Amino acid sequence: MTLPDTSETRFADAGSAPPPLFTATGVTVRFGGLTALDTVSLAARPHEVHGVIGPNGAGKTTLFNVCCGFVEPDEGVLRWRGDPVGGLRPHQLAGMGIARTLQGLGLFAGLTVLENVMVGADRFRRTGFGSALLALPRSAGDERRLRERAMAAMAELGLADAASAMPASLPYPVRKRVAFARALAADPELLLLDEPASGLGAADIAELGELVRGLASRMSVVLVDHHMDLVMAVCDHITVLDFGRIVARGTPAEVKDDPAVIDAYLGEEADRSGDHG
Length: 277
Ligand SMILES: Nc1ncnc2c1ncn2[C@@H]1O[C@H](COP(=O)(O)OP(=O)(O)OP(=O)(O)O)[C@@H](O)[C@H]1O
Hints:
Helix content: 25-40%
Mean pLDDT: 84
Pfam family, one: ABC_tran
Radius of gyration: 19 Å
GO cellular component, one term: plasma membrane
Number of strands: 10
InterPro entries: AAA+_ATPase (IPR003593), ABC_AA/LPS_Transport (IPR051120), ABC_transporter-like_ATP-bd (IPR003439), BCA_ABC_TP_C (IPR032823), P-loop_NTPase (IPR027417)
Protein name: Branched-chain amino acid transport system ATP-binding protein
CATH class of the largest domain: Alpha Beta
Bound molecules: adenosine-5'-triphosphate
Number of helices: 11
Distance between the termini: 33 Å
Strand order of the largest sheet: 6-7-8-3-9-10
Low-confidence stretches: 1-14
Order of helices and strands: HEEEHEEHEHHHHEHEHEEHH
GO molecular function, one term: ATP binding
CATH architecture of the largest domain: 3-Layer(aba) Sandwich
CATH superfamily of the largest domain: P-loop containing nucleotide triphosphate hydrolases
Shape: globular
Oligomer: single chain
């Protein structure tokens, strides 16, 4: 049984494991009278895939949104490489080396696939703020560098042939890959994935699993997803939430048979059958 532990010392006591890149410690989020997260902690370590699972309404998306800076926690501390990052805002993420994909893909409808993916590489643009402000064209060198990064990310995702397509012309699983390629083009140290498997069939989910596993050699990944098979197959470490609290954490093998996890999911099953009955 893996006990919930919200103390910061846990991270310091983790033996020879490398220090985490990113930590959220003692995070509490309240929406009016509802406590969506109650003193939840999470550590993303280098080269580790960290999964966050839990039944509907457990607080997964809220935790993801805290990590992305979309939701400011009422309590708790976020740290990047050990330094507190108070008031984290989504636009700061790329500069820090954090990329994310969201449930809503957020692709620009008026841009081609290549142009969408180049947006992800934008942190490597060298042309200064002043040029951007004056809407001067990007330098030819910048343009080439961003294009090369984007093409490399697209090749990794099998999208090279779709470079000039408009997103709306592509099937949903391909659009998901475009959003993924855009995140990879930022060459992040930490990749945050919200429900990457939603809307995908079994074959695409299996491919996604292989891709995510492969990414761990060069970055840290936090993955929020409902698909147990995917989470169990690709994650090194899993945090299980229920009603805003951590009910278990550990390796897939440790959490799989944890009675608290089984209870949480059985509770969800019971609710569902109640809904239909
Ligand atoms: N903006 C909000 N305002 C009020 N309540 C919210 C808000 N966002 C989430 N909640 C509530 O907080 C709780 C946690 O929601 P959250 O979406 O984080 O759970 P989840 O585990 O991602 O669920 P699901 O798997 O259904 O997406 C739920 O009870 C939800 O209704």
